[in-house]
Amino acid sequence: MKYIVGSGTWAMGDDGIGLRVIEHLDSKYPKRDFGLVDLSSSAFNLLTYFEEDTEMVLVVDCIVNQKNPGDTVIFDLDEVESVKDMSNFTTHEDDVIKIIHMAKEMGYKIPHIKFLAITPESIEESMELSDILREKLDEYAEMAVELIRNFN
């Protein structure tokens, strides 16, 4: 099984882009050959998908970087390291990358993991995406489907 996973926070503007992509795909692809996962409640829920029959996980999330708002970056798990301070680690401050590394140390079978990361324009209290991300939502969704379907 292959999964597209949306990470982020619904109420923090562009931080919710991964969740919006999952929501968009759910309405656009009622019949699909991949699973959709909403990690808004806790990124720890990702561990339930680390099973023998999981071939690939594509995580869609926002990433703060030096690129322009709306730009995308695609990378594999082994190409990135989280720099988020996790000294006061709680389930309310999830870091998908650190959780995956923790799962690996605990003996979980880690499938191939790829990230579709989207540069936000605004991460502040709001239930709405910025205009630039909202206008590209369908493009992000199609990129995610292409990445998951083209995985061998």
Brief synopsis:
The protein is an alpha/beta fold. It has four helices and five strands; from the N terminus they run E-H-E-E-E-H-E-H-H. The chain has one domain: Rossmann fold (3-Layer(aba) Sandwich), CATH 3.40.50.
Structure in words:
The chain is an alpha/beta fold. It has one domain: HybD-like (Rossmann fold, 3-Layer(aba) Sandwich). Helix content is 26%, strand content 18%. The chain has four helices and five strands, in the order βαβββαβαα. It has a five-stranded mixed sheet with strand order 2-1-3-5-4, covered by helices on one side. Helix 1 crosses helix 4.
How is the main sheet built?
Answer: 5 strands, mixed
> How many β-strand stretches?
5
Structural class: alpha/beta
**What is the CATH level 1 assignment?**
Alpha Beta
Number of helices: 4
What CATH architecture do you see? 3-Layer(aba) Sandwich
Poorly predicted sequence stretches spanning 5 or more consecutive residues:
82-93
State the end-to-end CA separation.
Answer: 12 Å
Radius of gyration: 15 Å
Q: Order of SSEs, N→C?
A: EHEEEHEHH
How many distinct domains?
Answer: 1
Mean pLDDT: 89
Strand order of the biggest β-sheet: 2-1-3-5-4
CATH topology description: Rossmann fold
β-strand amount: 15-25%
Indicate the percent of residues in helices: 25-40%
Rough outline? globular
Quaternary state of the chains:
single chain
